[in-house]
Amino acid sequence: GSQAVRLNWTKVSADGYHIYMKSGTGSYIQVGDITDSTTTTYRKNNLSNGVTYTFKVSPYNNYSGTDAGVN
User: Fold this and answer.
1) Exposed end of the chain (fewer CB within 10 Å): N or C?
2) Pairwise CA distance, residues 39 & 52, whole Å
């Protein structure tokens, strides 16, 4: 069946967060873009049973348009 995961993280000084996910030994892909800096949760639906998923959250600042480098 279809599964879901909820990510929670501690707020840092950033304008928003990019959410990345990979399955198994694959490459990370961006699956979310949170533009509200006060939001510190993300829910990913439609995950498959028996698959290992790895997530990372990268804060970003609008002035640079790039990730701030904190994973």
Assistant:
1) N
2) 25
Give the pLDDT confidence of 11-63 residue by residue, as tens digits. Answer: 999 999 999 999 999 999 999 999 999 999 999 999 999 999 999 999 999 86
Q: Are 9 and 57 in contact (CB under 8 A)?
A: yes
Q: List the end-to-end C-alpha distance of the chain, in Å, as a whole number.
A: 30
Amino acid at the residue 52: T
Tallying the residues shown for the chain, one arrives at 71
**DSSP annotation of 67:** B
**Residue among 22, 66, 24, 27 at smallest CA distance from 44:** 22
Cβ(57)–Cβ(18) under 8 Å? yes
The pTM for the full model equals 0.82
- Quickly list H helices, the chain: none
